[in-house]
């Protein structure tokens, strides 16, 4: 057997293995992406509609009959929560749909599914990266709103808000507002509330980074499948042309 034939056979076998491995990887990662998306949707809906979750703080923030400026503080927080809710839900739904298309495309090895999937995946992780960067730029604004809410609650002696802070965060007082009833070394509620929220946003950011990395990897593994499908299509087209 000629050496060129052996080399061609070896290259074809290697390429077939690479494509199979890529298909398997794309299938598994898209399945994970789909399941994570469904889990995020379920978790977000649970937090949004379960009234027992952070019930005291939830009731206080939803209260609309406070005097100014406390009412404006709560309005800003409500708007921020609604925006965050729909952004998270939107990205989760997109991950589910794109993951489903990726699974089907990997199983069928259909480049007409995988090519649009690849484009959507790239656009999705670019949007997620943009949201992450926007969160970094908005961090100071969120911090200011949260601390202002705590400060105004204490300054206006809003009993329900103060009790919720004390019970939930084991804190006392607000920044730049003296309170003789606070123990030495006890954190202010301004710091306690913000630190908890900041930690939550950090965890969310790390999770988003992990998802983006996963999407980049799965996008790279999609390329060999698309190229192999294109190569096979070209090969069969040439065979048909030669036979005719």
Provide keyphrases for this structure.
244 residues, mainly alpha, 6 helices, 84% helix, disulfide bond, transmembrane
The number of domains is 1
Mean pLDDT metric: 84
Integer-rounded radius of gyration: 27 Å
Major sheet characteristics: none
Helix content: over 70%
Distance between the termini: 29 Å
SS-based structural class? mainly alpha
* DSSP summary, beta strand count: 0
Beta-strand share of residues:
under 5%
| Series of secondary-structure elements, N-terminal to C-terminal | HHHHHH
User: What shape does the CA trace take?
Assistant: elongated
- Give the count of helical stretches: 6
Low-confidence stretches: 1-11
Explain how this protein is built.
The protein has 244 residues and is an all-alpha fold. It has one domain. Helices cover 84% and strands 0% of the residues. It has six helices and no strands. It is elongated and about 75 Å long. Its main location: membrane.
Could you write a compact summary of the structure shown?
With 244 residues, this protein is mainly alpha-helical.
Show the helix and strand layout:
Blueprint: H1 3-49, H2 55-62, H3 70-108, H4 111-155, H5 159-169, H6 189-243
